[in-house]
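Backbone geometry:
***
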Amino acid sequence: MKKLALHWRILLGMLLGVIFALIMTNFDFGKDFVKDWIKPFGTIFINSLKLIAIPLILAALIKGVSDLKDISKLSKMGGRTIAIYIMTTVIAVSIGLVLVNIIKPGNSISDKTRTELVDSYSDNTTKYKDQAALQKEQGPLQALQDLVPENIFSAATSNRNMLQVIFFAVFFGIALILIPEEKGKTVKSFFDGFNEVILKMVDLIMLAAPYGVFALLAALVVESPSVDLFKALGWYAITVVGGLAIMIGVYIAIVLVFTKKKPSFFMKGISPAQLLAFSTSSSAATLPVTMERVTEHIGVEEEVASFVLPIGATINMDGTSLYQAVAAVFIAQAFGMDLTFGTQLGIIATATLASIGSAAVPGAGMVMLVGVLGYAGIPEAGLALIFAVDRPLDMCRTVINVTGDASVSMLVAKSVGKLGEPKPKEWDDNYDDVKGN
């Protein structure tokens, strides 16, 4: 019998968790049994994600920056690439924040359910209020001051210091480029290997995802069996997907305005990579197909594609950053928290920088969300609210990540005079049939 794909196993675990919890609520001992014997496994799963958040950022960012190899590239093609990637990411996060504040999916949870959630995690909400009070007393440049850690080891001990760790990783990567290659070879090899180990840890953790989802959903149902919670999840998913759809429109508009290429040309050229991205939930796994489609079917010269796309697979996660913004505000709404405008601006910066450190593998976005929640003081336990629908949303946002990489490669190629006509293979008339798309 063919083994079920991971995303189907996660969806099955979600469904079984709900069914199991609904059955257990019919017994007097059912709620306590789930809380004492099932919920801890969900907590362990969330803790395992939090465990690798900081190592993931260090490994992915240092590797991504050091892979540029020549610091002079940052002044032209590299600088344009990174600037455009950051611009599209900020747009994505902003779209997510606008939608989640308009739709307010978390507000569809009743006061009773919200009260139960807040009571369950009262320690976290108290900490949030205390931190908010401290922020009001700080000066206008406190955020800039806090960006630079006085001790990287101290900063790395808390997921709340995500921006400080990102600053150090970027600074370290740039320094690694500037020293002679032979002297930095050992360090570069170490972080390349370190990155591979962390990615494998993500893979191993995701193998436990079906069981973690089962435990999380079972505990969620018995502790808050209100139908409005699941209604809120539906609105949350609609908000994320709506934002992702708008981002597709943004990419098409950017390509049309700056490269004069028709939307149909762009979408037809990149569609096979989008389908692969949807099925694998991995920008890295899709990268070979993305490069082939961009060079052979869109007209980006290989010199540009080979530089822009690998960097994009590492640092350009527009779909992931949009989802992080929506998820953070949704969880805050679910817990009855009113995030200030300043805090939401901070979420834009944090989600933008955190997305740079998101590995191009399934589930990494959930890991990076921990840092965004930590920045805003939102209870990390709120991850339990959204993980049930995270896998299908992960598939959707990976499509956006890959589409963003392709559109930026066209913009960069156009700016340096390296965007020409497609150069399909001789047998390209039957290309889609041959490729099985």
